[in-house]
Amino acid sequence: MGGALGRERDGIMVRESKGTQKGWGKRRDLLERRSILGKEKRILLSEIATAMSRIATLLEQELGGRLTAPDWGAAPAFWLRRVGRSGVMVEGVAEPDRVRLSDLQGIEDQKRRVVANVRQFLAGLPANDFLLTGARGCGKSSLVKALLTEFAGEGLRLVEVQKELLPHLPELLPLLGRAPYHFLVFIDDLSFEEGEGSYKELKSVLEGSIWARPKNVLVCATSNRRHLMPEYWRENEASRDWGGEIHPMEGAEEKVSLAERFGLWVSFYPFSQEEYWQIAAHWLRVYGAFEEEVAEARAAALAWAIERGSRSGRVAEQFARAWLGERRLRG
Description:
Number of domains: 3
CATH superfamily of the largest domain: P-loop containing nucleotide triphosphate hydrolases
Structural class: alpha/beta
Strand order of the largest sheet: 4-3-6-7-8-5-9
Order of helices and strands: EEHEEHEHEHEHEHEHHHH
Largest sheet: 7 strands, mixed
Strand content: 15-25%
Radius of gyration: 35 Å
Low-confidence stretches: none
Number of helices: 10
């Protein structure tokens, strides 16, 4: 018959009209369009998921996520660093500056007092937070680093916190309290300027908060200021008017109260000329100088200190590196 074609169904040849064929074509087109739309939908959903993931990553970078504990056994030292605008994270320091107690010359009394305090701490005995103050370059920060070198094998860990991140201490301490280690929370070169308020966070952590501090945490800080905050002559003139404040001495007491929360104060003083020279000679030997070279270097070491305007341990080591390195380069 004209206008009809056959299609095999279940082994039987069935004759179909042109209208039937047209219907089958429309159905096939519809199925193809649905397939295309399904693919487009899956692609769109995948793109949306990718975009949401990127947004979440950006938000975490900008705002910071919840503070989580690292692997405390993976490194001996850690630092609290900023993530994004307001978040923080604890990151390990795989290769910390390894200072030896034996390399810290001229501060035997300071070493003895601090080491005894840390030994008490590691033994589970009462120990004090400690504040190292005094002359620059005389071993305050180096002593803290040497404690880590000396006691890392006994479970001591160091966590450095910068001054601007002190408000995050309440988040950090619970993480430390749950870890099977003893921690020194280290705040280097700590001081506060007029009008800064972040010192109040540190005051609460040291003493004054309703929360009990973990027993496996000590706070140690170094500063060139004994009381950590600027002091003025006017604060000693209680009988005079002081900017309209009725009780000016209460403001002065507020400044001193932060330093008083450290139970152990250890002061560092400028070295005498002979002490400075002995430190320089020690570092010359550490870097490989022969004894005749050490004796020869004395005059140059003293001149170096005069030029630098300081007889600190830092300056002594800098001299040893410069003098011996230049001599070895010349051959």
